[in-house]
Amino acid sequence: MKNNHTLIIGSGIVGATLALKLAQAKMPVTLIDARPDRDASAWQTVLSKRDARVYALSMASINLLKDIGAWQKIASSERKADYSQMQVWQLNGMGELLFGESEDSSGAEDNSTENRESKLLGSMVEPAVIEHALWQRLCEDDVSDYLTIIAGKKVTNMDWLGAQQGYRVTLDNHTTIDAALLVGADGRGSFVRKQAAIGLDTLDYNQTAICCAIHTEKPHQATARQAMLPTGTLALLPLADITDDDKANPQHWQSIVWTLPRNQALALIEEDGRVIADKLAAACHYELGAISQIESIASFPLTAQQAKSYVADNLVLIGDAAHGVHPLAGQGLNLGMLDVQVLSEQLAHDFTRSGGTIWGSNQTLRRYERLRRPHNSLMMHSFSALNWLFAGSLAQLRPVQQIRSEGMYRVGKMKPLMRLFAKQASGV
């Protein structure tokens, strides 16, 4: 039988999810990450703090996490904030898009679990909460026979041995591992991508995002909000309530991603937290009232990128190693999770159809690329176009403002189109 061993470099959310999918299908897989392993005590230390960053998981991503047994752990931790509405508006023109639960005009009230879940657009979850759930699953007995985890080791070399043998990878302790398929899930600066000499198309937005956690005067009411400002987008995303005080007065903590021109952002990040909070509240016209607390203020530059190819002989890229998009729609991780879903399906299909003789063939990998790269390209360019449409000097020209305002107003009146947008946002 052909060697079907898979080696995944990078044990972040996307890499770990793929490892679990393959192990569940009884496919031998090794997962390598340069970060040292955490024990239960170290995880509790990490999880004791509120993280300002949050992932807006679509229903498609949630369903994938359910399939691998990780979502159940996230749900039981109570460290998630479901959202059933999305609100998008601009402050310098008419037009607002509001879609989700409020569109159900039946008047009937149904609070069953099934009905609540059917109305969800997704859930906001802190990165460490997802990673902890995946770590718990990776350690469980039902996948241990097919899964090897190597933590705290860096890959120093990759040698292609030919299509039949695949890759031989050398670690920093001189250990070597052979695999028929090498998966790069090692982020935007992917070592795998560079070693495979795969080029990269990049776009620098000359913007920086400020992220933080805030406590607002008014509750978020399970609504993800995004204000389209002349300086860039300002997202207010529900955060889970983690303390007893939070739970006694719920839905007041939110994660902020505030996009600004780079120089403006770098100057603002040097200000006192109270000053940032006041400017933030004013920027969104006090949509949720005053901001009483602000935590974990940080910033990161905004760029988009895409690998010129997602695959090579015996090698495939997934997640941020393959693509990175503007965060204005919160779809970066969701695109990576769709990569996992499609790649695992293609691999399993060909392996089963071939009677266990085909694993990671060039044809299979190219099919994955054909299914994912055009979709990711469309999403990347769509987000770039939206960013251009609302932010920057050209976006403030009167004709552009009028077209934008009229467009948002008209779209907001089209209920079937709004329901389609809601479905697309959920990813299912």
Task: Walk me through the topology.
Elements: E1 6-9, H1 13-24, E2 29-33, H2 40-47, E3 55-58, H3 59-67, H4 71-77, E4 80-83, E5 85-90, E6 96-100, H5 113-119, E7 122-125, H6 127-138, H7 141-144, E8 147-151, E9 155-160, E10 167-171, E11 176-179, E12 181-184, H8 191-195, E13 200-216, E14 223-229, E15 232-238, H9 244-248, E16 253-261, H10 262-268, H11 273-283, E17 291-307, E18 311-312, E19 315-317, E20 323-324, H12 332-353, H13 362-390, H14 398-413, H15 415-426
Parallel strand pairs: 1-2, 1-12, 2-8, 5-14, 12-19
Antiparallel strand pairs: 3-7, 4-7, 5-6, 9-10, 10-11, 13-16, 13-17, 14-15, 15-16, 17-20, 18-19
Question: Care to describe what's here?
Answer:
- The structure is a single chain.
- The chain is of the alpha+beta class and 428 residues long.
- It is 39% helix and 28% strand.
- The strands form 4 sheets. It has an 8-stranded mixed beta sheet with strand order 6-5-14-15-16-13-17-20.
- Helix 1 packs parallel to helix 6 (127-138) and helix 1 runs parallel beside helix 12 (332-353).
- It is globular and about 60 Å long.
- It starts with 5 loop residues before the first strand and ends with a helix.
